[in-house]
Amino acid sequence: MIQSVIRHLRFLDTPGYLTLSALDEPLIPEKFWPEFLATLEHHNDWIYDVLFWFDDDEDGTKRTAHGSWFEKVLRTVNQRLIKNRNPSLGVLIETLLTEFEAIKPEAEQDIREFRILCRKLLKKTGDNLSVFLDLLAFSEQEERETEEQRNYVHLLTLHGSKGRQFKKVFIAGVNASIIPDPRCDLEEERRLLYVGITRAEKELVISYYRNSFGHSEEPSPLLAPVLQSKSVIFCPTMDKQIKYKIGKNK
């Protein structure tokens, strides 16, 4: 049940074929997925509006029973947000959990425990759903691991790495076309890369690629201060990528 809640949140955060197909029950029949996703893209991913209008036509019902249920959930969230007059990720999550609890009363205990976890994470993430999902995934991973099982490779986003330390850290794809993101504040992107760099306790490896699908690529300009460090080791690899291996100064 909790995984189903998370899949719905992931779809709301990143609407697309993968997150749509990952839902336990389809929102719309699969034959309408291309049209649905194209409509979503045209309307800037406003899922509630698209689900509301994506209903009946001459070909029959375009929205499943689960799609109608989810549209109702989002309508409730929208009404509560209007009443509060402020965007709130907490309102979305609380409404979704309440509605899931109503259709799956046997999962009440699991939902209660998950609600407590969500409230703790919301204090750290605010209204950023992407960051919330990153921290949620990491929290779930921590719960599953025992002390003897912690020597794993952790696959994290830069946001999700906050507050963690590792002996060795690899940051891949540090290209000018990726970071800084032109849609974001430059200083915020600089701080985000700094977060990733400072996760390393002993060794840091940064890589970027030279070309992508025939197009030449350049390293991120944010790497310039890093490359001036005397502790940088230049390591060209066999596949023409460039890596920078950074050890802490003694």
Write the layout of secondary structure elements.
Elements: H1 2-13, H2 17-21, H3 33-42, H4 47-53, E1 56-57, E2 60-61, H5 65-84, H6 89-103, H7 108-125, H8 129-144, E3 166-171, H9 186-197, E4 200-208, E5 211-212, E6 215-216, H10 224-227, E7 232-236, E8 242-247
Parallel strand pairs: 3-4
Antiparallel strand pairs: 1-2, 4-8, 5-6, 7-8
Helix pairs in contact: 4-5, 5-6, 6-7, 7-8
User: In percent, how helical is the residue content?
Assistant: 40-55%
Give me the side-by-side strand order of the main sheet: 3-4-8-7
Mean pLDDT: 78
End-to-end Cα distance = 50 Å
Beta-strand share of residues: 5-15%
Shape: globular
Q: What are the secondary-structure elements, in order, as H or E?
A: HHHHEEHHHHEHEEEHEE
What count of helical segments does DSSP give? 10
Overall domain count:
2
The structural class is alpha+beta
Low-confidence stretches: 238-250
> What can be said about the biggest beta sheet?
4 strands, mixed
Overall strand count: 8
**Gyration radius, in Å:** 22 Å
